[in-house]
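#onboarding

Welcome to the new folks! Below is a worked example of what a typical request in this channel looks like: someone posts a single protein sequence, and someone else replies with the predicted structure as tokens. Don't worry about understanding the tokens yet, we'll cover that in week two.

Example request:
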Amino acid sequence: MSFTPLHDRVLVRHIEGDEKTSGGLIIPDNAKEKPQEGEVVSVGAGARDDTGTRIPMDVKAGDKILFGKWSGTEIKITGEVLMIMKESDILGILA
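Example response:
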């Protein structure tokens, strides 16, 4: 991957949700909700505070995360649709 986000931005790959309900029904594509779970592909160096000191990022490449439903911007890199968002849009890291 030849893309590195700037400042406090994060590049995220969607993790697709289940295609079946717990009862075994298949969910069609048009009824699926936008995924809110992803894997961090790369992170920026971090934002700077008022004194110019860099604030380290809390996430790193490979982390599984949850983010807001309408967070980020979809971009296409090397044929793959990814999302770029600010670190503040991330709700938490999945263990």
